Amino acid sequence: MTVALGLASDVVALTRALVDIPSESGHEAPLADAVEAALRAFPHLAVDRIGNSVVARTELGRPQRALLAGHLDTVPAAGNLPSRLQDDRVHGLGACDMKGGVAVALRLAATVPAPTRDLTYVFYECEEVEADRNGLHRIAAHHPELLAADLAVLMEPSDAGVEAGCQGVLTADIVVRGERAHTARSWMGANAAHLAAPVLQRLHEHTPERIVIDGLEYREGLNAVAVRAGVAGNVVPDECVITVNSRFAPSRSPEEAEAYVRKLFPEYEVHVTEVVPGALPGLDRLGDLVTALGATPRPKLGWTDVARFAALGTPALNYGPGDPTLAHTAGEYVPVEHLRTCEERLRRWLSP
Amino acid sequence: MTVALGLASDVVALTRALVDIPSESGHEAPLADAVEAALRAFPHLAVDRIGNSVVARTELGRPQRALLAGHLDTVPAAGNLPSRLQDDRVHGLGACDMKGGVAVALRLAATVPAPTRDLTYVFYECEEVEADRNGLHRIAAHHPELLAADLAVLMEPSDAGVEAGCQGVLTADIVVRGERAHTARSWMGANAAHLAAPVLQRLHEHTPERIVIDGLEYREGLNAVAVRAGVAGNVVPDECVITVNSRFAPSRSPEEAEAYVRKLFPEYEVHVTEVVPGALPGLDRLGDLVTALGATPRPKLGWTDVARFAALGTPALNYGPGDPTLAHTAGEYVPVEHLRTCEERLRRWLSP
User: Fold this and answer.
1) Of the partner residues A219, A236, A247, the one whose CB lies closest to the CB of residue B223
2) Which of A102, A106, A191, A201 has the fewest CB atoms within 10 Å around its CB?
């Protein structure tokens, strides 16, 4: 049975209602059903369902189209259901990441029937898991026309501030080779773990760059996120693999980011396992949006789906309620004040 | 049905017969049954069965008692069964480690009814697995009187040469701590993997000692055998654990071996997880045995059960057919010449 969501009532009640419909990645159907049913009630919206993602659009023939997007899924529960309201904060799984943002977008979809620009609302599945399951990725691959827009707002938690662009991410394995031997005769081999010391030392001494774009400082990072060596308790390991995670400014292409890491470790095997470009802030292409949101833009350091819009040629920013550092924590919450501010500012921007 | 072993025939045929009764650790019963039944046929032997270990003793009232020991178990099969004889080598699982040595001891048990000293033969289970399952350990714990002897020969593969004593083994975890952070804001944390570089570098630069005892050089070793760090692909790890394996000369006590490692890493957490003492060569306590075996003693670098005899106060050496570096390899074999040499030399030592 599909839960009836009251989109017309209040953003706090709606956030709680969304939290109370569990939607861990891969299990978004009940929430997608509820969202789809609620949106179909409004004649000013054309609604499409793709998998467990829902797209709702106005078709007013406005010269410009804006897109508001939020993912429906959450990380696994951590004893943080159902929702509760305390100290003017909505607590509970996904409250911050990002059912608060979804609630704001749903409120606008329901209550702004004649916006100043046409609007596309995208509520999508599987943001928290592998990229090829991501609902936005799937819509872009199979129904790109549904994502056509002049600018996009991704309602990821950003402290109700504007976080512009995002950094790219590169993951690579640095492989250090040695020669296996019995530890009782270790001089017969070469210990790959010992030989890995210079790699870790170089990472320790490396000073990442700070790159300013549109007045925003993107502070890069290069970190070992895993070190693996070991065959058995009495064997000199013949291989040590250091997995590094690079966060690079959106002005670098994936190729440049890869070259940067390779140049730092010229004498080692470097296997790039993943590289995704960032998104330039593109503030000059966002028109009056940033002004309307009334916040000084900050650079987004983590990777978000704004990069997918950048890849489609659509300027995008992150703007949503909630502290991003609370995402994925058991104690996540979203301040009521953020919910109201985000709704109010977007409503003002969209209203005649 | 118990397989009938022909102890009186030939050491090569007997080695093959032993290889052809599979006896991976924990599954020695059929082989122990066959060994027990074969030994009980000889009235000059008193036979005891403890678990899947078999002890056979002469009771001739000689002033001295020698002990010959070999383990019945093997590592898991690796497509190397049944046995085959090729190029004067017996190939097959356990041929080298150590059914060849067991065959030599069984031959002597059967065919030297009136040795110059009393003899205790120990054929034991579970040498290749955790220490508390080891048959020799269990006999020492529950029936120590069965192991009483003036000297012991452990028939581990030693190239038909004499390998005296053995080194001790210490295993310790060196823990390097940092502070967790999201890799997009890595400067908020401290990368434990990066901070581990000095530990690995120090291991790389460390020159283990060479300690001479009774004219034998025990070459020590200190190696990282495992490195583990990593929380998730986007998290700065807050802990890096380096497991080190130390091989220390038998002149050091476990306490001294531990102090040695701690002194090398004074600024890190060091958790000793295992330490077993080695065995001094004790050549002066072995009487005419070394001369009779006609080989120049070498130091044993790997740990073997001779250390258990040392702990009981019994001088012991390793002497057996087969190249020790072939142990645990799929291609292990034992040269026929080794089998015959070992049998002949021990027979000469034991015969009037």
Assistant:
1) A236
2) A201
B103 vs B155: CA distance, rounded Å: 10
pTM as predicted? 0.84
Output the CA–CA distances (angstroms, integers) from residue B299 to A145, A235, B67, B167, B250, in the order listed. 77, 20, 20, 9, 10
pLDDT tens figures, A89-114: 999 999 999 999 999 999 999 999 99
**Domains parsed from chain B with CATH numbers:** 11-165+279-350 (3.40.630.10), 168-276 (3.30.70.360)
Give catalytic status of residue A87 as yes or no. no
| Kind of pairing between the strands at B151-154 and B65-71 | parallel
The 3-class secondary structure across B45-113, one letter per residue, is CEEEEECCEEEEECCCCCCCEEEEEEECCECCCCCCCCCEEECCEEECCCHHHHHHHHHHHHHHHHHCC
For residues A181 and B26, what is the distance between their CA atoms, to the nearest angstrom?
27
Dig out the tokens for B235 from the structure: 């998290």
Distances from the Cα of B16 to the Cαs of A57, B9, B100, B252, in angstroms?
80, 12, 8, 40
Q: How many CB atoms lie within 10 A of CB A6?
A: 11
What H or E segment, with its residue span, contains residue B263? helix B254-264
> By CA distance, what is B326's nearest residue in A?
A182
Q: What is d(CA B204, CA B226) in angstroms, rounded to the nearest whole number?
A: 14
Quote ipTM for the complex. Answer: 0.85
DSSP state of B114: S
B221 and A185 within 8 Å at the Cβ level: the answer is yes
User: Which phi and psi (to 5°) does residue A118 adopt?
Assistant: -65, 150
Strand order of the β-sheet with A84-86 is A84-86, A89-91, A333-335
Catalytic residue among A28, A36, A73, A220: A73
In degrees, rounded to 5, the angle at the alpha carbon of residue B260 between the alpha carbons of residues B258 and B263 is 110
Q: Which amino acid is at B212?
A: V
Give whole-number Cα distances, A297 to A126, A173, A248, A286, in Å.
27, 34, 19, 12
Which tens digits make up the pLDDT trace of B196-239?
999 999 999 999 999 999 999 999 999 999 999 998 888 899 99
Catalytic residue (choose from A28, A36, A127, A238) = A127
CA distance B208 to chain A (A): 10
